[in-house]
Design a protein that fits this description.
Elements: E1 3-4, H1 13-36, E2 44-47, E3 50-52, H2 54-70, E4 75-78, E5 86-87, E6 90-98, H3 100-105, E7 111-118, E8 121-129, E9 134-139, E10 144-146, E11 149-151, E12 163-166, H4 176-189, E13 192-194, H5 199-207, E14 213-217, H6 221-233, E15 237-239, E16 252-256, H7 261-271
Parallel strand pairs: 1-5, 4-6, 12-13, 12-14
Antiparallel strand pairs: 2-3, 6-7, 7-8, 8-9, 9-10, 10-11, 14-16, 15-16
Helix pairs in contact: 1-2, 5-6
């Protein structure tokens, strides 16, 4: 992966955010339209249970081509590899269709996820959940919003009163027993455990107070970058399974309203 020369630092975050919201919605419209008459014979398998189609690739090309002009000389970390040339300063982290398996089977949710990093910091995030027409967004200097209305995490304090979301392993099964034990624990000690199929949407559901926490392993940066910033700006907390900060590239994440975070991390340490 090559590195491009850094661009200048004085960007207008509000202007960039507005442009990214437009891009995410435009891409979502394309995905929605393609899903109406999708031909399942066009599904490809990148690896076991890791599905993709021309919709993913075309959606990513649409996003990348527009973002190149939004911040010239910026780099990309993109799931489908249509652009993966990193820059020194600004890099876009793009998942054109988070929840591809849901999309291919006509289930919801599935999302467009776009984040902007400046050096090692996420400074902007947009997640557009297509089936509900919900656009979550924030910068690192703003509050968090859903369709332009401010959102905040749930005020629930007791772990037992929380509703939680997770993601099932789909390609790495060596720790499946650990995962099943964690499911049993959350099912027995909370209001319940859910699985939706889009990590980007899941994190935003925590940010908007619909549930108290999310955990999953086997994640990639494009799955979590945008949602993590939105959650943090909504008053929530993110970490890896040890309670540290390596959730972006470390492949695992705990996301919460903050109040139940310590108990979630204790559970991860117990079962993983």
């Amino acid at each position: 992966m090559t590195t491009k020369k850094a661009t200048k630092s004085d960007i207008d975050k509000d202007h960039v955010l507005n442009e990214v919201v437009k891009i995410a919605r435009r891409t979502g419209e394309f995905i929605r339209h393609e899903g109406e008459n999708f031909d399942r014979s066009k599904i490809e398998e990148k690896s076991m249970n890791n599905l993709v189609s021309y919709v993913d690739f075309e959606a990513e090309r649409m996003i990348v081509q527009t973002l190149k002009f939004t911040i010239p000389d910026s780099g990309f970390i993109a799931e489908e590899g249509t652009a993966n040339e990193k820059a020194d300063e600004f890099n876009w982290v793009v998942d054109p269709l988070d929840g591809t398996t849901n999309f291919l089977h006509g289930l919801s949710p599935f999302s467009v996820s776009i984040a902007l990093m400046q050096h090692d910091e996420i400074i902007l995030g947009v997640v557009y959940e297509i089936t509900r027409d919900e656009c979550f967004h924030a910068t690192n200097e703003s509050k968090a919003f859903l369709n332009r209305r401010e959102i905040k995490v749930s005020p629930v304090k007791d772990f037992k009163d929380g509703l939680f979301i997770t993601g099932f392993p789909y390609k790495e099964f060596s720790r499946i027993d650990n995962f099943l034990n964690s499911m049993k624990f959350f099912s027995e000690h909370t209001h319940g455990l859910r699985r939706t199929g889009s990590a980007a949407a899941d994190i935003c559901y925590v940010a908007s107070g619909r549930c108290e926490g999310f955990y999953e392993m086997g994640l990639s940066p494009w799955d979590v970058a945008a949602g993590a910033l939105i959650l943090q700006q909504a008053g929530g907390k993110t970490s890896d399974y040890k309670g540290g900060k390596d959730f972006l590239f470390g492949g695992e994440m705990v996301a919460s309203n903050g109040n139940v975070h310590d108990e979630m991390v204790k559970a991860m340490q117990k079962f993983y």
